[in-house]
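Most newcomers find our protein records easier to grasp once they have seen one. Read left to right, the backbone structure tokens trace the chain's path through space. Nothing more is needed to start thinking about how sequence determines fold. An example says more than a description, so a record of this kind follows:
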Amino acid sequence: MAFTELGLKRHYTTYKNNIVKEFYTPVLKETILYQRSVGFFSSTALIGLTKGLHGLVKNNGKIQFIVSPYLDKDDVEAINKGYEKRDVIEKALLRELKEPVDYFEEERLNLLAHLIENGTLEIKVAFTPPDKITGMYHEKVGILTDANGNKIVFTGSMNETINAFYNNFESIVVFKTWEESKNYAEDMQEDFESLWNNKTKDIEVIEFPNVLKEQIKVHKKKVLHEDIDIEEYETEQEDSLDIGIPYMPKGFELRKYQIDAIEQWKNNGYRGIFDMATGTGKTYTGLGAIVKLFEDKKRLAIIIVCPYQHLVEQWVEDIELFNMTPTIGYSSSRQKNWKKRLEDDVLDFSIRVIDSFCFVTTNATYSSKFVSDIMANLGQDTLLLVDEAHNFGSPRLQKKLYPTIQYRLALSATLERHGDKEGTKCLTDYFGEKCIEYDLQRAIKEGKLTPYYYYPICIYFDDDELAEYKDISYKASKEIYRDKHGKITITEKGKTLLMQRARKVAGARGKLTELRKLIKDYKTDSHMLIYCGATKVQNFDQDSSENDEEGERQIVLVSQMLGHEFGMKVTHFTSNESAEEREIIKRRFSTVDPYQAIVAIKCLDEGVNIPSIKTAFILASTTNPKEYIQRRGRVLRLAKDKPYAVIYDFVTLSRPLDEVDPYSPDYNCERVLAKRELVRIKEFGEIALNSRDSDELINDIECTYKISNHELEDDEDGSELG
């Protein structure tokens, strides 16, 4: 069938037409050449461009896409300063490439990967040169050609995104070469060809970066399911939904343990805690609970709170998958009018103009006066869902656990607050009972996480370090008080001293020596993570003139060792890297040419997902179980070609065990350090594939320092100083 037989309209609008079903799918089924300039590049736009392409593929057609990078002010400044513009543009494109959120997006990326590999799809990048950088190329034109040479040109406001197709008011105008618009259509074709061949004045066009092609090819599967009518399936789903109403995605099913958790939450009056290990579907279980609650009550204000901005953005992707259109609230939100949106949503909800809305925000913004005032207008028919809920046990955030909120759900793999029983009790009093407890061992056993080998590496203080450790411990012990009820209080000075002592443990000089020995066997490997402490280390391997009195930061010394001594490709992952830089690092780790190692401090702990990490060297760990359990969780995510993970845990002891003197006046101080480290060794070693390898060390420490299991279980308040 030719284009001339399709009965096309001249104008399509989203409010009265299904543009995918009425235009894209039938036209692309007859197309042999599809040329499209799409405007700003994003993963959703790229995925959206596959609408209807299965028909074109069956015709052995060709596709030419021109995309434009979204350059922020830092990118523009970098280009104007003379940085290589291709590198800047590559980074800008990479940060817009997100992981697929469901089966259909996976299949669409699979299709794109096949098309790129077999040469069917070519992509180029258009941008204005540096001296005209303020006027970004953002044209939206499509040109389609059939086997008879007929051409269709369409132009208008619409990008190929789900929001554009179904949520926004968008339109396209259609021109045809067999009608009176023939000359206009041919002019548009000529303009596209000029642009494609980089002959358009004031616009530069380059090839699509190889690193992005490789990133897309990561999603290529062996089989291209051309027999699955994805367009029809997705369109049926989207047509059947009221936008903004919580809805379970078609083709998506919760697992039995997730369904059971939601049912228990319902039985508890829609209050409770989902205690679920990393990688077990905690977010989806929470969203499934939202859907269930709305189905039961038919009316729901949804407030979702996360610790950090990057976690908010991860939630947004999943929230949209469940048919909600969230208001995204934090200081640098891409929704610049989020405050006005939230006020309107609350007003519309209160006067019953709408039955549901969703607001997702950070802990900091949720605590602000603006949001606190908004929350005062909510209560009944409101759900407060808190991710990483252990944070809300702090005195500041406890005040934001409003008693008027009717429905409550806490998500956390580590709800118990180390050394803060009162904070933990506040959380359980407010949110209620655990509705599920899905621990790490079960997650590994059931294939949700990767099994691992665990190797504790013993490091011993030198004489100077041991003397400093004992001196700080003695001073800190003078800052601890116990009242008549047995409650322990540590002064602010005591807390500062304990932090100094912890940094001594984290920065023990022997750790660099042992890391150097181990890394020799890994210098050609990749997908490694080295966890450092926020501490300085005296590095006596360097010339003394290069060391200041306090020493160099551990993370710098480790990076120098890996990069300079062993010639490895490494990068930092710290609070100094921007959100965009971190996203690029994460994506580079999944390419065929990854960094060999990420050297990180604390900011990688909570919520950052880099599944491809295979080997971890943990130089620094706190005594807080929440933190070291999260660090282990970063390494155990499932990934392709990753049958197991390996963890090297650098354990700090005062001296070799055969040199310990139980009659020494310092014995108790050294014993406390050993006990702190022993808790983590037992936690990590217990479920490792090679658990027997750590059993001998555990037994030696227990015998040397006469530490019982009962004693370890009782020491939960973090008060014993030695």
User: Anything to note?
Assistant: The chain is about 40% helix and 20% strand. The domain at 241-444 is CATH 3.40.50.300 (Rossmann fold). The chain has a mean pLDDT of 81. Residues 667-686 form the longest helix (20 residues).
